[in-house]
Design brief:
505 residues; alpha/beta; Leucine Aminopeptidase, subunit E, domain 1; Aminopeptidase; seven-stranded mixed sheet; 13 helices; elongated; binds ligand BES; binds manganese (II) ion; binds zinc ion
């Protein structure tokens, strides 16, 4: 069961007898603070609303949402847009978040009309996306408390006058696809390891892909062992839930299409293995399969949008457990392709399963005529969270222009990514006295060391991005904007945008 996305439509009718969402911002003119309202092309009676904002002591900050009883509308919801920009043009992400915050606050209502400022199709799309992404709830495991959980919005209308010159239907279709697959990622992340194992992860995607032109292939533990996937086997061998390697491929009709491999870390639970993690906070490690969920969902989204790009999504899946069969510190494993790794710390498991899958992805890509890029997505290091916090992901690369391209797209999708280096001098810390490489090196710069480890498993001429989403993949703090508590779905939007941008060349 997956969380459903609301229906969405564009409207230019002013016959609004429903919940109405509009924006407000604040400005400071020579020491005098004031608010302004932004309802796009919809005319509203501003005076009483502005007065109410003053009376309530509103601030206008982003994420502030104020509900007022309406006169023509059942309810008027004012969503904060922050400072009024000089040219009165709000950043797309500001609109996306404001729509999302309002949508989130409207759980318990069934429908709402969003009248937020926009003149371009990109602004319209951002509002639609935010409104949809905020309407999420994970209810699968509610029993007796089900009735207490408010249902998210199920019908969204975007008030707009751009329909005459823009194909809003196409923009809304895209926004809905983004929301649908983001929700699938969030659902998978939120599903605990009692209900999500390497095998059930595969079965879920097999079901999602059935009836589409996507091809799904699954290697089980016997095949993995026989074929030499020492990383996936090594990490999974301590668990009663055996590992898998899932491949989802999409081949568009255009045979000359560019080809990308996406590889996602799929640890359905990371106890740390014999380097057992402390109990406090370990529950968040149900999110350690976020990368796998994102790359598989991205492949499905790209296929549903029929983008002319060939995609191979790879999910190496394992449960990192403690048992008498678990990998011991000092064990040596052989990654697919023959490189040996001394496992000094079984908690540095993500890089081991990724190494196997990246090697295989490049081999298959080469057979298919060569890859134009390989991107791995992983909740890889606690050091990522220390360096960039809970909302900014890291990008590491062997190809600056590929990285630049990705970062520019992330600016448009509103996902926060930041470039990080792979300093050569840290590589020596991964040297092993007994194997080709060790799985841990310097603790300082741990995110970069992990990136350098992965770099050993990519040919230098293959454009490669390593996305460490350890912090942003899972929100264990408070909801904000269109982001709920739990799985976020981060990286999906930029991966889809990348496919769109190479497709449109
Ligand atoms: N899954 C964790 C990384 C992680 C930490 C993700 C916090 C999300 C939030 C990863 O497998 C891990 O345990 N990494 C170790 C690596 C270390 C042993 C070199 C870490 O970061 O401590
Ligand atoms: Mn770990
Ligand atoms: Zn992990």
């Amino acid at each position: 069961m997956t969380s459903s996305t609301p229906t969405i439509r564009a409207t230019d009718s002013s016959a609004i007898n429903d919940v109405l969402v509009i924006g407000f911002s604040r400005e400071d003119k020579r020491g005098k603070k004031s608010f302004s309202l932004h309802s796009g092309s919809l005319k509203v009676d501003q005076a009483p609303l502005l007065e109410a904002l003053e009376d309530l002591g509103a601030t206008g900050a982003a994420d502030e949402v104020i509900k007022l009883p309406g006169t023509t509308n059942k309810l008027v919801v004012l969503t904060g847009l922050g400072e009024t920009p000089k040219n009165s043009e709000f950043a797309h992400e500001t609109l996306r978040r404001a729509a999302g915050a309002a949508s989130r606050t409207l759980a318990g209502h069934s429908s709402a009309t969003f009248a937020l400022p926009h003149s371009s199709s990109a602004e319209f799309a951002a509002i639609a996306e935010g409104a949809l992404l905020g309407a999420y709830a994970f209810a699968e495991f509610r029993g007796s408390s089900k009735a207490e959980q408010k249902l998210p919005l199920s019908k969204i209308s975007i008030y707009t006058k751009i329909s005459t010159k823009t194909d809003t239907a196409k923009l809304l279709k895209r926004a809905s696809v983004i929301a649908k697959y983001t929700f699938i990622v969030r659902d998978l992340i939120n599903t605990p390891p009692s209900h999500l194992t390497p095998d059930s992860f595969c079965q879920r995607f097999k079901k999602l892909a059935s009836g589409t032109k996507l091809k799904v292939e699954i290697l089980d533990e016997k095949q993995l062992r026989k074929l030499g996937y020492g990383g996936i086997i090594g990490v999974g061998q301590g668990s009663a839930n055996p590992p898998r390697l899932l491949r989802i491929s999409y081949q568009p009709t255009n045979k000359n299409a560019k080809r990308f491999a996406l590889v996602g870390k799929g640890i359905t639970f990371d106890t740390g293995g014999l380097a057992l993690k402390p109990a406090q906070g370990m529950e968040a490690m149900k999110s350690d399969m976020s990368g796998a969920a994102v790359v598989c969902a991205a492949a499905l989204a790209i296929a549903e949008l029929q983008l002319p790009v060939a995609i191979d999504a790879w999910a190496p899946l394992a449960e990192n457990m403690v048992s008498d069969t678990a990998t011991r510190p000092s064990d040596i494993i052989t990654i697919y392709g023959g490189k040996t790794v001394e496992v000094l710390n079984p908690d540095a498991e993500g890089r081991l399963v990724l190494a196997d899958a990246m090697m295989k992805a490049a081999e298959i890509g080469a057979k298919a005529g060569g890859l134009d890029g390989l991107i791995d997505v992983a909740t890889l290091t606690g050091a990522q969270v220390v360096a960039l916090g809970k909302r900014t992901s890291a990008v590491m690369t062997n190809n600056e222009s590929f990285s630049r391209q990705f970062l520019d797209l992330a600016d448009q999708t509103g996902e926060q990514f930041w470039p990080m280096p792979l300093p050569e001098e840290l590589r020596a810390s991964l040297d092993s006295p007994v194997a080709d490489i060790a799985n841990i090196g310097d603790r300082m710069g741990g995110m970069l060391v992990a990136g350098l480890f992965l770099k050993e498993f990519v040919a230098p001429e293959l454009p490669w991005l390593h996305l460490d989403i350890a912090g942003p993949a899972y929100n264990d703090v408070k909801p904000h904007g269109y982001t709920p508590v739990g799985g976020t779905g981060v990286a999906l939007r930029t991966l889809v945008a990348l496919a769109e941008s190479v497709a449109s060349r």
